[in-house]
């Protein structure tokens, strides 16, 4: 008698805009063997185009307008209520342009991930593509990491690299990186939700099966 498959992790995606990474995650999660289920999409902007895209995919999606709250803590409390009500186990930030309170981040420690458009720890913050060009980088890319109170400083789960080509500007480089983001984020979420990666002493420990070079999720 075969063992029953492990239940899928219940995932919420937080967005602020069009949600292109959200779409890649939703599409990946349609696979029967994908270990996570996208059950909720929340946006801090009522006009976020990603809300319509999520609803079209059959995912419950709603806005919690941050402008309607007196402070960040009140907004985060509203987020928390929605997440708890949906039984969320993992949070995925996908272009979510709000700084969360330390208390919220710590409450979700080890259960919230983000994707950043650089090879961290290089180029934390914004304007990463222009800064990579200014620095004369030959490689650039994106990083999936756990979220900690310090911005873009959490333990790294996976990275994907792209070459910086002669004649690149910030837009062409960004276009090359976003292709890798759409590949990397679903793979990293699957790794975490399926138990292939876990936090251990502030670093990400990969399960034995994930330690070979082909599972490193590094692309050129």
From TrEMBL:
Catalytic residues in the record: 116
GO terms (BP aspect): 'de novo' IMP biosynthetic process
Positions of N(1)-(5-phospho-beta-D-ribosyl)glycinamide binding: 19-21
Metabolic or biological pathway: Purine metabolism; IMP biosynthesis via de novo pathway; N(2)-formyl-N(1)-(5-phospho-D-ribosyl)glycinamide from N(1)-(5-phospho-D-ribosyl)glycinamide (10-formyl THF route): step 1/1
A single GO molecular function term of this UniProt record: phosphoribosylglycinamide formyltransferase activity
Binding site for (6R)-10-formyltetrahydrofolate: 72, 97-100, 114
Source taxon at top rank: Bacteria
GO cellular component, one term: cytosol
Record field: catalytic activity: N(1)-(5-phospho-beta-D-ribosyl)glycinamide + (6R)-10-formyltetrahydrofolate = N(2)-formyl-N(1)-(5-phospho-beta-D-ribosyl)glycinamide + (6S)-5,6,7,8-tetrahydrofolate + H(+)
Sorted UniProt keywords: Purine biosynthesis, Transferase
Gene3D superfamilies xrefs: Formyl transferase, N-terminal domain
Site positions (Raises pKa of active site His): 152
Family from the record: Belongs to the GART family.
Designated name of the protein: Phosphoribosylglycinamide formyltransferase
Species: Methylorubrum rhodinum
């Amino acid at each position: 008698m075969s063992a029953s498959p492990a239940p899928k992790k219940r995932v919420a995606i937080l967005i602020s805009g069009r949600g292109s990474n959200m779409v890649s995650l939703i599409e990946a999660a349609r696979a029967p063997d994908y270990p996570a289920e996208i059950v909720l999409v929340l946006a801090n902007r009522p006009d976020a185009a990603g809300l319509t895209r999520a609803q079209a995919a059959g995912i419950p999606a709603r806005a919690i307008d941050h402008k309607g709250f007196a402070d960040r803590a009140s907004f985060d409390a509203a987020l928390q209520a929605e997440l708890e009500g949906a039984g969320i186990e993992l949070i995925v930030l996908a272009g979510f342009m709000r700084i969360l309170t330390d208390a919220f981040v710590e409450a979700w420690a080890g259960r919230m991930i983000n994707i950043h458009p650089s090879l961290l720890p290089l180029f934390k913050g914004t304007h990463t593509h222009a800064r990579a060009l200014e620095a004369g980088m030959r490689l650039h890319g994106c990083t999936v990491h756990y979220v900690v109170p310090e911005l873009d400083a959490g333990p790294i789960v996976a990275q994907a690299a792209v070459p910086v080509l002669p004649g690149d500007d910030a837009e062409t480089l960004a276009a090359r990186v976003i292709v890798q983001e759409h590949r990397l984020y679903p793979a990293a979420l699957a790794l975490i939700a399926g138990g292939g990666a876990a936090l251990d002493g502030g670093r990400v420990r990969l399960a034995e099966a994930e330690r070979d070079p082909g599972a490193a999720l590094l692309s050129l």
